[in-house]
Amino acid sequence: MTTSRVSQEELNFVIAYFGATKATAKVSGSEISLKICPNPEIECESKTGYNFYVNVKKKKYHCHKCGYSGSFSFDDAVKTSVTKKFTNEMIGLIEAKLSKKNTAARWFNISHSVDVREHTESYLYLMSRGIKDTHIERYNIRYPFFTSRRVIFPNIFYKGWTDMYVARSIVPWLKPKYKNPKNAPAKEIVFNLHNIDTGPPYIIINEGVINSIISGIKGVAIYGKMISDTQYKALAKKKAKKYYVSLDSDAMKQAIDLCERITNKGGRALLVELPEGKDAADLRGDYINYLKKAKVYKSSFYSLPSRLKEPPERRLPIYPTGKNFRSKLNVAKAIMKKGKT
Hints:
The chain is α+β, with helices and mostly antiparallel strands. It is built from twelve helices and 18 strands.
């Protein structure tokens, strides 16, 4: 009797499909066990055991820690692999852009950078911010070979080229704190969005790259507080079931505006309210609790009366947003007053 084995092609597919790495995968017969669970509802990642099992012959998966299970197909579109391999379609698109003189300038050569190595200043900084070894490999985090006092976070990274990157200073005296390439298309790109398939259960929208990484494999960054029309359209095309808006506490007005825009276009937005002066990287493991407490945003135009009826401790903050907001608020109060008489 012959034992069915997992092929290298099947292993590469599973690693890419579930957002794992070679270092977090083990093969036994027709099963692959992973050290990371892609459960979209909770943070379920075992540091000591391989609890997530994938049966490549039955095309089924199951987590023995949280119970997350389901089936998959090898016909599914494979996203950018965390093993630094790309689908033939993506390679074709990238090389087509790089071969054109008028668009090559929109891509940036960072071949002068190297992978973050253990015991360097960059590595120790990343560990202090909650970035793990698996994150370093998955997101191709690097640093310039001439100094380890900046960390480079590329978006798409291919043969030394990237469409966008942020180089962050890890020491207070090295200015500027964030260094982008000249003529960087920051407001045309959403960090990590290329790694998310269409129709995901959720997407978490952050300001910065580090917060995006900490928030999980469905986390993205818009490179700042304000979202551009191009970035919004790219997010909308993904048709996520839920959009968590998780901007920093000092950007609540911008977060409300984004929730309003998503909701008025028929999407489902949840507002994540973070503590003053804290972000996802500061909160680490506690961040998941703030995601669970996120409230479904209701459009200010259609739901001001119902929002005003809620107890203050449960009420979403009401910020001036959109045209004629103040008149809408007054109309809502008048409706409530009339209902009481």
